[in-house]
Amino acid sequence: MRMGEINALRKEDIDFDNNVIYVKSTISRGLDYKEFVKDGTKTDTGKRKVPISKALRPYLEEALAQQKPNKT
């Protein structure tokens, strides 16, 4: 995954039941160079499912358990 895609992940993009991460958006910059979450990926083929490996799963679960609310 690209860094912009990772940074744009939301909790609902992670599907532990099917062991996949849905890549649906990315971080982009507007004309004023301010960053925002772009609905959609860099290219149309960028929308995809990324498998969650057995090694990655515990780290994702721990990160979600420690997640703090962020208004932005």
Give a quick precis of the structure.
With 72 residues, the chain is of the alpha+beta class. It has 2 helices and 5 strands. It has one domain.
Could you describe the 3D structure shown?
- The protein is of the alpha+beta class and 72 residues long.
- Helices cover 19% and strands 28% of the residues.
- The protein contains two helices and five strands, in the order H-E-E-E-E-E-H.
- The protein has helices at residues 3-7, 57-65; strands at 14-15, 20-23, 25-29, 35-39, 48-51.
Helices and strands in order, then pairings?
Blueprint: H1 3-7, E1 14-15, E2 20-23, E3 25-29, E4 35-39, E5 48-51, H2 57-65
Report the radius of gyration as a whole number of Å.
13 Å
The low-confidence runs, each spanning 5 or more residues with pLDDT under 50, are none
User: Pairing-aware structural class of the strands and helices?
Assistant: alpha+beta
Helical fraction equals 10-25%
Shape: globular
Number of domains: 1
What is the count of helical runs? 2
Query: What is the spatial order of strands in the main beta sheet?
Result: 1-2-5
What is the beta-strand fraction?
25-35%
Largest sheet: 3 strands, antiparallel
| C-alpha termini separation | 22 Å
How many strands?
5
What is the average per-residue confidence, as pLDDT, rounded to a whole number? 86
* Helix-strand string: HEEEEEH
Structure characteristics:
two-stranded antiparallel sheet; 5 strands; alpha+beta; 28% strand; globular; 19% helix; three-stranded antiparallel beta sheet; 2 helices
